[in-house]
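To the wet lab folks,

You asked to see what we're planning to order before we commit. Fair enough. Below is the target structure as tokens, and below that is the sequence we designed to fit it. If anything looks off to you, flag it before the synthesis order goes out.
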């Protein structure tokens, strides 16, 4: 006998002021479901999740949950009134002896349970809400953007926990890698309708595109039929008025059907205005060191940023990624070392804290009062890449309607605030673009568009993000900030960085010997007499051969470094760049292994 769904929504209708958000919506969540809930910003994802959680009462319809079934919702703005600490609030529903569950979640999600809610940041409050949900472990978890404000390590912890849970969950996220790893079904909200497909997010985009393609074909056929029937009406109705009134009414019905079709929301009309070409060297850093409150951010750090580089900064929250970028831009002074900037730099900054937006200002004022966009003598025009535009028209390009123009910034959703900040940045010309957590709150279609724009951008990009998929799509170099002042450069994006770290950690018993002849000064020098007691014949032979192997590997690495040093290679020949990056990782891992093997054999020979 089939078990009842954990949650059943039947004929749900909901209206907020104007047009209905949902009308006649029905869906079910079964035991073991792992569902991605996707849709454009503003499509109603969070509202639907609140209906599922029982926090929003629909105008019509039924929400049914079987008796004794526990449903948990990750609160976006928890009320901590009456609680002295975040942990006290998060543990309120745990039985005595189960507090350890919260400790585990707090450690994995990196928040301090002893923090006073009054001094906690918005990110810490959200992490407390997520930790509470994970510790309580309800039978159905409703997760609305759980990866926002998490660093990559915490995202990995959460992903592992959700993979092994027996609970069902519905998940809203912009993080492609997270969705692909976890989901087995997809709920898609599109223009008030909810569709379900029994495949995870990995198959969503192909499904979406097929639905839209079928819609376009059907709309084209309907338009042709209306045109044909209208021609008949004009040419023949006067001679057959009484006999053909049914056909006239049918034509009216066709036109009504066409008028009632809801057009798909377009993508934001984003564009990056490129300024004058910067110098070939954008930033040079020499021996940077910096400490805050006794914590080392970087120590003796060198970096050369070339024109056209796409450099990603990754690492745990609080490790100093934003501080390092501000040092490179000259906004923060290093304790030691110096910065040299190239010529003709025009810098645009996307701020993760949205601090450049005044929450009390209207959207209109946020644009017209911006010194970089103001048009002299005009209160309704903004300068967009050198061309005046009406402020409402420009806002519409970023998917804001006219009614929002006079609304305060604080009334916007996270995704809308991100779009408004992008509107301000993209009105400027630039040749250096700093993106500090740009992916938070943006929907997948806008992320795709931003990625395409960055691919065509001739300037330099400095990027901080915890979105692994976005890093892989954008970054050509990754700087891993690993704490205690360590900042290490890796070629490629997130997956390349992880691969190179794994290869470096794995022992290689026999390093390959690629062709080459250039010597490597740092290669270890063998003793004059390598054949020493304690080594087998094979080990003695290997000890003699290893210096040659090390020399050849070093020469290969030197050639690859010269090739990858071309700042235009990534955009001009992406396939060649990818292959060179993979080869570099392979050779470096082999060199590390060969040097380790030589040292081990030398130590054994000396015994």
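Sequence we intend to order:
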């Amino acid at each position: 006998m089939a078990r009842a769904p954990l949650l059943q929504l039947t004929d749900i209708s909901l209206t907020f002021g104007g047009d209905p958000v949902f009308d006649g919506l029905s869906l079910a969540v079964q035991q073991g479901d792992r569902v991605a809930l996707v849709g454009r910003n503003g499509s109603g994802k969070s509202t639907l999740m609140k209906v599922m959680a029982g926090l929003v009462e629909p105008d019509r319809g039924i929400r049914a949950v079987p008796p004794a079934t526990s449903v948990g919702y990750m609160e976006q703005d928890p009320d901590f009134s009456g609680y002295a600490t975040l942990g006290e609030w998060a543990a309120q529903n745990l039985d005595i002896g189960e507090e350890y569950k919260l400790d585990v979640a707090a450690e994995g999600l990196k928040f301090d349970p002893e923090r006073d809610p009054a001094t906690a940041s918005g990110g810490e409050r959200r992490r407390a809400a997520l930790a509470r949900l994970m510790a309580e472990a309800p039978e159905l978890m409703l997760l609305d953007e759980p990866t926002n404000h998490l660093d990559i390590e915490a995202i990995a912890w959460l992903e592992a926990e959700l993979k092994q849970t027996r609970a069902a969950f519905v998940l809203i996220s912009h993080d492609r890698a997270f969705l692909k790893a976890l989901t087995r079904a997809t709920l898609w909200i599109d223009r008030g309708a909810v569709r379900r497909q029994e495949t995870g997010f990995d198959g969503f985009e192909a499904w979406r595109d097929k639905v839209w393609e079928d819609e376009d074909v059907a709309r084209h056929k309907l338009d042709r039929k209306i045109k044909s029937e209208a021609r008949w009406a004009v040419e023949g109705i006067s001679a057959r008025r009484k006999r053909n009134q049914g056909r006239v009414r049918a034509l009216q019905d066709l036109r009504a059907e066409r008028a009632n079709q809801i057009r798909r929301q377009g993508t934001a009309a984003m564009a990056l205005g490129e300024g004058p070409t910067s110098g070939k060297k954008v930033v040079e850093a020499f021996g940077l060191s910096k400490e805050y409150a006794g914590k080392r951010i970087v120590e003796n750090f060198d970096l050369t940023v070339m024109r056209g580089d796409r450099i990603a900064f990754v690492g745990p929250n609080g490790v100093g990624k934003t501080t390092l970028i501000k040092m490179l831009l000259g906004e923060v002074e290093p304790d030691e070392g110096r910065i040299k900037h190239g010529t003709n730099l025009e810098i645009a900054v996307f701020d993760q804290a949205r601090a450049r937006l005044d929450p009390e200002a209207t959207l209109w004022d946020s644009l017209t009062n911006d010194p970089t966009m103001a048009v002299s003598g005009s209160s309704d025009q903004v300068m967009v890449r050198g061309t005046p535009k009406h402020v409402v028209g420009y806002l519409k390009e970023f998917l804001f309607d006219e009614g929002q123009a006079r609304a305060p910034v604080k009334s916007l959703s996270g995704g809308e605030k991100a779009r408004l900040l992008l509107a301000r940045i993209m009105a400027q010309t630039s040749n250096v673009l700093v993106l500090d957590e740009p992916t938070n709150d943006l929907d997948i279609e806008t992320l795709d568009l931003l990625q395409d724009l960055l691919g065509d951008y001739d300037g330099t990009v400095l990027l901080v993000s915890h979105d692994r998929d976005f890093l892989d799509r954008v970054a050509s170099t990754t700087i891993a900030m690993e704490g205690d002042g360590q900042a290490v450069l890796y070629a490629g994006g997130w997956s390349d960085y992880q691969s190179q770290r794994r290869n470096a950690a794995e022992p290689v018993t026999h390093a390959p010997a690629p062709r080459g002849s250039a010597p490597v000064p740092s290669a270890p020098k063998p003793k004059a007499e390598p054949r020493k007691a304690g080594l087998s014949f094979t080990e003695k032979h290997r000890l003699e051969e290893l210096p040659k192997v090390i020399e050849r590997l070093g020469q290969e690495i030197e050639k690859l470094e010269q090739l990858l040093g071309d700042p235009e290679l990534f955009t001009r020949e992406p396939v060649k760049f990818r292959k060179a990056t993979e080869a570099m990782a392979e050779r470096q891992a082999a060199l590390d292994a060969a040097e380790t093997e030589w040292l081990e054999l030398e130590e054994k020979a000396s015994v």
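Structural context that might help your review: The mean pLDDT is 82. Residues 534 and 603 are 10 Å apart (CA to CA).

Thanks,
Computational group
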